[in-house]
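Morning. Coffee machine broken again, so started the prediction first thing and wrote up yesterday's gels while waiting. Chain of 229 residues, entered below exactly as on the submission form.
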Amino acid sequence: MSKYTATTIIKKLKAKADPSQLAGMARFGINPKGRLGASVKSIREVAKETGRDHQLALDLWKTGIAEARILAAIIMDPEKITAKQIDSWVKDLDSWDINDQMCMNFDKSPLAWKKLYDWVKSEQEFTKRAGYTMIACLAWHDKEAEDKKFVETLPLIKKAATDERNMVKKAVNWALRNIGKRNLALNKIALKTAKEIVRLDNKTARWIAKDAIRELESEQIQTRLRKKK
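Came back before lunch.
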């Protein structure tokens, strides 16, 4: 049983919060609703204190407080979270920072690959974002995954490239870029996909593709991948 409760943790977060920061957060597209004004740095300090604590994470998520949900995403145990629990969390998403923190930990779950395929099918903006964020996070963190698994997600990326919603298009772009930064072979395949996307008659698709091409063809990325080979 955890020595911490959601109530005591919320008190810690409130003590670290600065409500005057909320307006600035909103300018970065962060939803200020249900938010105390605590920085990610201060949330991570609390996470370091509590350590991995799955039950506490579930309790914190239920509070509806944004910082508590970010903390929950950090300290939850990806080996223990169930499909029902993570789907419930995804339905609650209303800000990109909570989404991204959740995916950055959930990508270690045995359910991660299956769930991304479920979420990208959704028409709900944040659920769909979660699916594409998962692709980006897995490309970043899943060192054991074969290239084939990422190649199989590229048609999903191309399909969503015309989705003009901000939260979706940025995640689609992120997924494409991260696949292309994984190794030289995937770089070539991701660039091929990006060049197919840029030819679509759509402003959003062109932005996603051109931004990805610019980074993936950059000397910095090409040099790093050649050294990694």
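The chain has two domains: 1-77, 94-229. Going to sketch it on the whiteboard this afternoon.
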